Amino acid sequence: MLGNPRLPAQFGFPQMPESPLPSPDLPDAGSPGNASGGFLGGNDAVLLRRVCDANIERIERNRGGSTISFRVWFEGGGRALFKPQQRAEVANFRAELAAYRLSRLLGLDRVPPSCGRRMERARLQAVADASGDAAFSERVLHELLGREEAVPGAMLYWVPGPLENVPASERWSELLDVTRPLAPGEVVLAADLSRLVLFDFVTDNIDRWSGGNILRQHLGGQEPSAMLFMDNGASFSVGAENMGARPHDQADRLAHVQRFPRGLVASLRALTADTIRAAMREDPLGALLGEAQIAAVLARRDAVVRHVDEVVRAHGDAAALVFP
Questions:
Q1: Mean local confidence (pLDDT), 295-314
Q2: Is the domain defined by 39-157 classed in CATH 3.30.1560?
Q3: What CA–CA distance (Å, rounded) separates 296 from 278?
Q4: pLDDT tens for residues 160-213?
Q5: Domain regions of the chain by residue span
């Protein structure tokens, strides 16, 4: 069987324990790691109980994306996406789990609820073998990591309905330019984009703008749905001076953000190493980030706060802190 080689040093993720950890009691909606109102206005505690503990009825290969993932159906209803531990650096399951916990700590409600779970290697291999795709079967055989028969991974809540790219998201730098008037119809999109860029800078998500990763639910003739902060597997590098894997790209993107959400800025200012550690320990698989990663998150937070303060000094509080 494949072993559990250490993940690349620039990530600094804690290593998996030798034996499975028992699932702790799930946090309620008022705990430190559940600071927001719930994913897209729902109840995260209910969704977490399903993705953490529900019995699995059926598994299929997920054909979307370049990394290995599986669609999961639960007994009694509900679906999820399982991203197992694998060799691809941009598919790190711990990053998906950590992004969800950090998003809750920051009062955001756009990252789908997720939970660390272990699945039988033989069961996943059987699904891959039955897919009719010999190349995929070989990938599962050779790329999945884990100890012995158990493969750890992230069980992600499946967002209902088809998804679509968020229109006009490519205009993010224009919409967040404090010198340009913002039309009333642009405010919601601009606020979402500001939150997304700040969140991705702090987590060092280097894969957001590679294409097809800025999504929302397609609701037909209804009001447009909220932006989703999905696909966080390429996050939480440490990098030189704690600035992540691509510091110049990330710094350039941050420099173009000049309109900010007051609530998120306040939550960022309140972050501490202790609050991050506590949030990361809520997952059943234990601590999701190592100490070096937590220090890097705080260093990038400091860079965001300095940037916000500079924009406020240059343009005024009312112009810069324009979103709730």
A1: 98
A2: no
A3: 16
A4: 989 999 999 999 999 999 999 999 999 999 999 999 999 999 999 999 998 889
A5: 39-157, 163-320
